[in-house]
Write a structure and sequence with these properties.
With 242 residues, the protein is mostly beta strands. The protein has a single domain (18-38, 47-241), classed as YmcC-like fold. Helices cover 0% and strands 55% of the residues. It has no helices and 17 strands. It has strands spanning 18-19, 44-45, 59-67, 70-85, 88-99, 102-114, 119-130, 133-136, 141-142, 149-154, 162-165, 167-168, 176-188, 191-202, 210-216, 220-228, 233-241. The chain has a 17-stranded mixed β-sheet that branches. Strand 4 and strand 5 form a beta hairpin.
């Protein structure tokens, strides 16, 4: 569910922020590369049950966005497949993005939940397409391979002002997230939700773009709005289970 829409970027942050996962703020207000999360496989559980990011195998999420090029559809499927990374058993999520029926991107994302409820992101295998033809795998990375390190998609107990790395391989993926609110009200085609978690996502690799995401308890990601670099609104339109 970490998809192409979810881009994150570097800018000024409040002085009172709480930095977790080894991140720290340096003199130019950017997040430094001094980041070495400790992963202990025995501390991870077999299922992802964080209420704001539940990954039940067999669940399909469908998102829609109206763009200048037409309608984009994002289909996210929680597979029954697992992948072991750094000794941790990760849930494999298949994510494909389509523009007017033509595929743009197909990704396998790897997530696992710590026993404290925090959901970690261990990498992604990306296929990028042009006019329906596979062109490259830019954006792919895996924790423990090269300089790739896992990051946090959602905390167990989010607090306003928390900032965390979502994924990290220098020059490839450097996404960050910040908790903005815990009581957002959101209405999308799939339904209306209260007390949603709202985050801000950015990356120093694309400083001209920024997005906010909203997560509903018991559902997961329900809305994403670009706040910089685009005016797109990505909404959850359907969720089904096998």
């Amino acid at each position: 569910m970490k998809r192409a829409y979810v881009l994150t970027f570097a800018f000024l942050v409040p002085l009172s922020i709480v930095i977790i996962s080894g991140c720290k703020k340096d003199s130019d207000n950017s997040m430094t590369a001094d980041y070495n999360p400790k992963i202990t496989p025995a501390e991870f559980v077999s299922e992802v049950t964080n209420p704001f990011f539940p990954l039940t195998p067999g669940t399909t999420f469908q998102y829609r966005a109206e763009t200048d090029e037409g309608t984009e559809i994002d289909k996210v499927y929680v597979t029954h497949v697992t992948k072991e990374i750094l000794g941790v058993t990760c849930t494999v999520v298949a994510d494909s993005v389509w523009l007017e029926g033509v595929i743009l991107e197909a990704t396998f994302d790897w997530y696992a939940q710590h026993q404290d409820g925090t959901v970690w992101y261990f990498g992604e295998d990306v296929d990028n397409f042009e006019n329906g033809v596979l062109v490259d795998h830019a954006g792919s990375w895996e924790a423990g391979v090269g300089s790739g390190k896992p990051g946090i998609i959602l905390e167990a107990k989010p607090r306003i002002g928390d900032i965390y790395r979502q994924e990290f391989e220098p020059g490839v993926v450097e996404d960050l997230g910040e908790v903005l609110s815990l009581n957002e009200s959101v209405t999308v085609p799939y339904g209306s939700f209260r007390n949603c978690l709202k985050t801000r996502d950015w990356t120093p690799l694309e400083p001209d773009k920024e997005a906010n995401k909203c997560y509903a308890s018991g559902v997961g990601l329900v809305l994403e709005i670009f706040t910089k670099g685009s005016s797109e609104r990505v909404e959850l339109v359907n969720m089904t289970s096998e």
